[in-house]
Amino acid sequence: MNGAVVGALNVLKPPGMSSHDVVGVVRRLAGLRQVGHAGTLDPGAAGVLPVLLGPATRLLPFLPVQRKAYRAEMTLGVRTDTGDGWGRTVEIRTDFRIPPARVGDVLAGFVGEQLQAPPAVSARHHGGERLYELFRRGVEVELTPRRVLIHEIHVVRILPDDPHALTFGARILFDLSCSPGTYVRSLCADAGERLGCGAHLSFLVRTASGPHRLEESHTLEELERAAAAGRLEELLVPPAQMVAHLPAFRVDEPAVLERLRHGNAVALEGFPREAPAPGMRSGPGEPPEPPAGLARVLDGAGRLVCLVRAAGAVNGGASGTWQPVRVLEPVGGGEPR
């Protein structure tokens, strides 16, 4: 494969690999260096990891808000220094008996907007360095809480299935959907404190990231087989679909397309305009709000040529003209604009 490959892959990341490791595998399979992911997933977690290829990486700032959904398991009675099962045990509590209904009440209390401190081991930056790098060197930092939004939490199952009381080692399987930047490890640690027994995240799979769903994801083994058969491109989500939450102009005049590819503002109001794709969602149950004054330009075959912004909204441009802000197709075979 070569630099003409452009789009997004819905990758099923296995546990034990970092998101960067997955990007490295896709680079090798696609024969591209221009590859990136749209949202870090912890090494110990599995699930949906959108990976962008070629010029599609430049669409990242314009993607709809990627609401996340997870299935998680919380184990009671053990706290770790990382908040998950991969860390060092820092406390064990065995003398507790918690009514199962209490767990549901505590988890339901996290629904809504709140301030959440990140785990000590995370990819978040502090003073120009990743928190996990500082943690490995033994540097303690003050973890600044950030605002997150928990949309839904539902308890799926409690093991063992004791109707009377939960004791040491009990596991709670639950589903949640949340805003980007939410740490499920922190949620489990906070829930353990509210329950008075301590807890850690013992299992996590991301079931959705924006419009990408677990049931539609591809394992690395599937990607290997597709690449070997020369069919990797068949698994790509095309750029036009990646930003289908935006309205579109359908342009089939070569001269106008050429001006757009060179970054020139053009009048587009005379061309057919299409509404955002029906059913395009930023997450489970939530339609995205398209940014004002932003649109796609599609050629006659429906391929994304560029993203444009109403020129009147920037630099005092003339009303009715649209200025390219991302050009997907290269000019004269050069780098994409």
From TrEMBL:
Report the residue ranges that make up the tRNA pseudouridylate synthase B C-terminal domain in this protein: 185-238
**Which reaction is this enzyme known to catalyze?**
uridine(55) in tRNA = pseudouridine(55) in tRNA
Any single GO molecular-function term of the entry would be: RNA binding
Q: Name one Pfam family in it.
A: TruB_C_2
EC numbers listed for it are: 5.4.99.25
The Pseudouridine synthase II N-terminal domain sits at 27-184
- Is rRNA-binding given among the entry's keywords? no
Q: List the HAMAP family hit by this protein, alphabetically.
A: TruB_bact (MF_01080)
The entry sums up its family as follows:
Belongs to the pseudouridine synthase TruB family. Type 1 subfamily.
Q: Mind telling me what this protein is named?
A: tRNA pseudouridine synthase B
The species this protein belongs to is Limnochorda pilosa
Q: State the gene name recorded for this protein.
A: truB
